[in-house]
């Protein structure tokens, strides 16, 4: 029974959602973008021994318009925060964020005037990786976790209206204070 | 509610036990040397104090004659302090000083390459609305950026400075963070809160105030020309460096570097941590050569403490630092080739494989790859495991062949030469006057290496050559770094042959922890352990500048101790910061595409530039 019995060889059926998710999972292009120590481990993940190409993510794109994944690899300073926010806003949907290392996740050892205590204060984060810095294996594990998440996504999760509500007006990107004003009271 | 946030945690002893002698000022220099006598003879009563302190020549001078003194020590043949390597400042508001004393002091480090001497000049800043001292920029170009940094972080105005802007913090930052009346900042640790705590409601919604500023044209650039912004998100700037480039067609007319996108407040953090706790932070400054940073800091503190490091620890340190130099240079090579040839991905893959072998060795001794913290105050963390030496031997056997392989791909290659030769030229005079160090200095024909000329940590026992090049361009610096890797292998071989037995860490229990086994049998060891873990060790008052030859140049630590367990002032002279100053001079007259070659050739690490 079923449709497969009636179809000629070489044709399979699947949900469109699964197919789309499958292709997204296996070819997530990260943004070529390093901040601090973790960036070195991110580069190490990309080189021969750890070989991020196994995940289809070896193509680090320098333009945010072409990237699907932002790996925030290091501490985010007050001066850098607006830049990161802008880069994230320039990435096209669907997009994901990995906060690599404890600094990007929660500020880490730098609890001081200069560093923002976690990049999730300015952009939404999908996967947090602990470590200072995380080993390449830890980043690969985070990629695995991200794939799991991508695999569970539905089209409804990315409805235009919902996205529009999360969008930020270009004028607001100019200042972090502007962003804060947009936060629900 | 349990609250262990770092803002409220006090490391100090109980109030009744506080030592009234803390805080104390660093003692004034005593005695005299040939150089200080010559300066005193010339400047008379305007020299407030001069002499030796912890083996360093220090001169305290009145601000009115600072500029004259700088001119004198530079041009006088018998002094010949040609280079200014560092500028820092101390806010003495929490020290027991007289009311008539100035609150701020600026500290200058001068270096004579011909006479192999070091001189520290201390100058009290004139108090007032804003404290001020005369700028040394007319004498030393190398003062321009460090003085901007002091102005930015400490709020001291430099009269006569050609470019008095902030350099690290955003232009509209409200205060000068390194002043003692400024708090460390930051937020309480959220994990210590309970669910009932009202602070949970604000978590994830709090954003620190930091306006981004509308881009302005840097001083000296004209809107007549095309002005291109490069970075802070750019694949070839090796991190978050931003360059504003003024172009006429494809020719570069001027470059203005905008720093601070990775400013992490290392110095302020260090002033609020106990001495031993800052070792872990040094890893994260120049994260490509963590071992060198550990060593520089530990040597500075050891100099203050006046403790000796066991022979075995010294040799282990040399092995580690030289391995780190190779690893750092390999990473430099791979990214440099990637930047320049665009498609040279293969060398990135090859060279990082060799780097991974070295990281494996680090992992073997310390359990970490990148941020290692293996070198500690008084020695190293643990002894070498028995399997280490054979593995090291394997790596050392492989490396020289690999260097040959890389050189065969590059050195004589016409494309490689075409992209590097004559690019980023720096004359010998410029390199010295700008306060450049490391391969940047040697690439312009200055025969100077701190390991050989001012030996530290037992380097006087090794036989090695210091490669220099008189080309002064990117190619010369490339050749130097390749040769330095070979020399490092040579040093490691000698160290391996002469590794003595004995302690790997000093047995001075006031500074280093007793071994775990001793805690079970000795009450005294337990007390030492408890004291070290709860209070840390107190360091006698003094101020010290210690520099080492890190892979990128002179890495200096300036530490001012007030007698307590935390540094009163901690300043880091990052080699990348001072070397990056040359970018403007190097790029002028070259093409736009050569900027990438120049950045790679300086070998910057933004963690160290911005600190």
* Count of helical stretches of chain B: 20
Strand order of the largest sheet of chain A: 1-2-3
Compute the average pLDDT of chain B.
86
Q: Describe the largest sheet of chain B.
A: 5 strands, mixed
| Secondary-structure content class of chain A | mainly alpha
Shape of chain B from CA axes? globular
- E-strand count of chain B: 15
- Straight-line distance between termini of chain B: 35 Å
Largest interface: A-B, 51 and 55 residues
Give a summary of the structure in a few sentences:
Chain A is mainly α.
Describe the structure.
The complex is a heterodimer of chains A (185) and B (611). Chain A is mainly alpha-helical and 185 residues long. Helices cover 40% and strands 7% of the residues of chain A. Chain A is built from 9 helices and 3 strands, in the order H-H-H-E-H-E-H-E-H-H-H-H. In chain A, helix 2 (16-25) packs antiparallel against helix 6 (136-151). The radius of gyration of chain A is 19 Å and the shape is globular. Chain A starts with a helix and ends with a helix. Mean pLDDT of chain A is 82; it is low at 178-185. Chain B is 36% helix and 15% strand. Chain B has 20 helices and 15 strands. At the A-B interface, helix 3, helix 4 and helix 9 of A face helix 5, helix 8 and helix 20 of B.
For the structure shown, list the relevant keywords.
heterodimer, A: 185 residues, mainly alpha, three-stranded parallel β-sheet, 9 helices, 3 strands, disordered C terminus, B: 611 residues, alpha+beta, five-stranded mixed β-sheet, three-stranded antiparallel β-sheet, globular, disordered N terminus
